[in-house]
What we know:
Layout: H1 6-20, H2 23-27, E1 30-37, E2 47-48, H3 50-64, E3 66-75, E4 81-90, E5 95-105, E6 112-119, E7 132-133, E8 136-139
Parallel strand pairs: 1-6, 5-8
Antiparallel strand pairs: 1-2, 3-4, 4-5, 5-6, 7-8
Amino acid sequence: MTTMHPHEALIRRYFDACNAADYEALMGCFMPDAVHYFPPGLPDIPWKSAEVISKKWIWCVKNLGSQWTIEKVLVGHDSHEAVIEWTHWKRNFNTAQRGDEWYVFDQHTGLIKEIRAYYAAPTVKQAEDLPRVGDQHMGELVDFDYAGRGYHLRWE
């Protein structure tokens, strides 16, 4: 049995805290001055500070029905960086967004100091602007075999 890399373990702990809307757990994942960058189209970006990042994700859980799944993780063997693929399920709107994030960790504490999010498709405001996958509208890459590669196809 292999041991999970500490960076991957922290990312998974971060996603668990997001899904639980747990402020203290979220705060424990970040350097105080952490920054979360996003593609254009969202209000009030980038999110600057652990407190802002934590409060914004809690708002998303409460108002959008947000939940997240991690699809893939790649950790740099000789750096303080990692990349993941994720799905952001907005259950209140029956939509989901796929994307990647690049993580930079503080080399002394191991905490997250930067996240750069990249979306597989443009962010849209209305479900009908997205293609359907089953009974959900999905923001994802065109003609990519998500099912064949074992990605989550719905929030369980």
